[in-house]
Fold:
Amino acid sequence: PLPLREVVLFNIFYEIFTVCTSLVAEAPDGNLIHARNLDFGLFMGWDLKNRSWVITEKLKPLVVNIDFRRSNRTVFKSTNFAGYVGMLTGMRPHVFTLTMNERFSLNGGYIGILEWILGKRDGMWMSFLTRSVLENATSYTEAKKLLSDTKLLAPAYFILGGNQTGEACIITRSRTHNIYPLEIDLKQGRWYVLETNYDHWKKPLFLDDRRTPAMKCMNRITQANISLKTVYDVLSTKPVLNKLTTYTTLMDVSQGKLESFIRDCPNPCMPW
Ligand SMILES: *[C@@H]1O[C@H](CO)[C@@H](O)[C@H](O)[C@H]1NC(C)=O
Ligand SMILES: *[C@@H]1O[C@H](CO)[C@@H](O)[C@H](O)[C@H]1NC(C)=O
Ligand SMILES: *[C@@H]1O[C@H](CO)[C@@H](O)[C@H](O)[C@H]1NC(C)=O
Ligand SMILES: *[C@@H]1O[C@H](CO)[C@@H](O)[C@H](O)[C@H]1NC(C)=O
Ligand SMILES: *[C@@H]1O[C@H](CO)[C@@H](O)[C@H](O)[C@H]1NC(C)=O
Structure:
């Protein structure tokens, strides 16, 4: 296991060096499927011999699914790293599903966290907000409002799914608000929303385009054939799956099901 000093550092870096792919898709019967890859460990040491990221490999054994209970009843479920208190992936069974992706931004991002460490900035840690929403929000609408309006330390993307048709959105956060909401809209043919680490109204960085291949896969599958299985296949397509990918989580809100898989990307495979 990681020593304490590394765990603390890791809590901070975790907010900074996480790249990810998250999506919510609506099946023809209105059922919502929410899935994500968590890619972690960028720039934190490349192992030449193993062709792998040192931290990514260290984290894989720490992936756990947690069932949070109150009065002996499940309040929410989540996929976590043992020892880490924030939440990046979780579900309130039968109510909503939630994932968070890093939104890179120099001012407000790294600088925001530095300023917070120096005591010069207020706002909530992003993955504490997700925890608080999972613990305390009781509907999609309430979760959406909290995720859109709570003041944050740094920018982030929240990907939220509800429990009925049309309830799925990407919340692109500045420190203060939801900049440009995007929701599922069946009338316009948008039966899924998908987020990596770039604003959905802009092109992804050419060196790191996981969005285009993931969307190609989704479009090829079509809404008629969407299921946990086909979504898993999308998240297993390179470079959506890459050397940073630590786990894949699949969630079916109406069945209250959350499952996760520790991932390996066989060579040849992109470092990110
Ligand atoms: C690298 O590979 C060696 C041999 O296969 C293994 O013992 C070691 O645990 C690996 N290190 C990491 C960080 O995966
Ligand atoms: C909690 O629930 C489980 C089954 O869901 C049951 O086996 C256990 O006895 C319960 N514990 C308490 C303290 O009620
Ligand atoms: C959830 O709400 C309760 C009661 O208001 C509060 O004590 C608790 O701290 C909240 N949880 C989080 C994670 O904010
Ligand atoms: C969907 O969520 C709402 C709360 O927003 C809840 O009242 C309702 O029972 C849920 N529907 C199902 C089918 O679980
Ligand atoms: C769904 O998948 C099956 C088997 O892969 C295929 O035969 C069928 O054409 C697909 N349906 C649609 C609508 O794409």
Summary: The radius of gyration is 17 Å. The longest strand covers residues 18-26. The chain is about 25% helix and 30% strand. The CA atoms of residues 31 and 219 lie 18 Å apart.
